[in-house]
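SEQUENCE AND FOLD
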Amino acid sequence: MGRGDLTNAEWERLRPLLPEGGQRGGRWNDHRTTIDGVLYRARTGLPWRDLPERFGSWITVYKRHRRWSADGTWQMLLTAIQAEQDAEGRVDWDIAVDSTTVRAHQHAAGAPRTPPPPAPGRQKGDAAGTKRGDPVLSALAARLAEVVRLGSA
């Protein structure tokens, strides 16, 4: 197992959600090996042809990634993991936006400043990011989100 590969705990959460694999008459890569290859590529950004041999043939990993992106398998996996986390009440849906990536139009510079209204459903003293969830699900959701972004690019 290499750095960045699925842990055994992540794999056990993911395995029941995966589609059936393999077709009659042909050899096929294990889903875990292929997913590890896709995660490796998403993490490093290297070309598909430079994928290390421990993930199997690069074309196999590429084709399964493309097929799962097209049929919505990656999105389904991400949604299922996020739903499981949310059902346990362990997802903080607050979004932070980095000001270096969002720019206001030049005409917005002279707007009057009023404080924003309080967020609905928040109680005084609640802090963003205080919900601690299952670290396996959190890590898996983050990695699947990266793969979904990679597939839609």
Residues 60 and 88 are 36 Å apart (CA to CA).
